[in-house]
Amino acid sequence: MTTTESTRTTVVGDKAPEQTFGPISITDIVRYAGASGDFNPLHHDDAAARKAGFDGIFSIGMFQAALLGTFAAEWLGAANVRRFTTRFQEQVWPGDVLVCNGEVTAVRPGDGGSVVEVALTCARQGAGVAIAGSAEFWLPA
């Protein structure tokens, strides 16, 4: 949904169109590491990750959080975001396909628009939720 579409009447239970990302590649993970400056070897050095007790390298949690934030902003408009929170729940591995979903949980009318609260998830396809979150948007009338 674009910013223009977000000005329509929004009600509790409205859902965002599901969006998928991936499969997540090692290149995706390393590119995000470069952009964020997070060069923890667990995210790019397979031997270091295995030595630390993991099955191999895994994605940086903030990468999934960024995908979820982008998903939410594209749904109800980046200019309308007032709050965005996330909770890391499960690791993401190379090869995972991520599925983002959102649902309106509350709408409060205000002068000239509405405050809209949404619940958000970024799940590993066929597995658990990697990132759960929420956001608040101001949607002008």
UniProtKB/TrEMBL annotation:
Segments forming a coiled coil: none
A GO biological-process term: fatty acid biosynthetic process
GO molecular function: (3R)-hydroxyacyl-[acyl-carrier-protein] dehydratase activity
Pfam families with a match to the protein in the record: MaoC_dehydratas
InterPro entries: HotDog_dom_sf, MaoC-like_dom, UPF0336/Enoyl-CoA_hydratase
Domain MaoC-like per the UniProt entry, residue ranges: 22-120
Family recorded in the similarity comment: Belongs to the enoyl-CoA hydratase/isomerase family.
Name of the protein this chain belongs to: Acyl dehydratase
Organism encoding this protein: Rhodococcus jostii
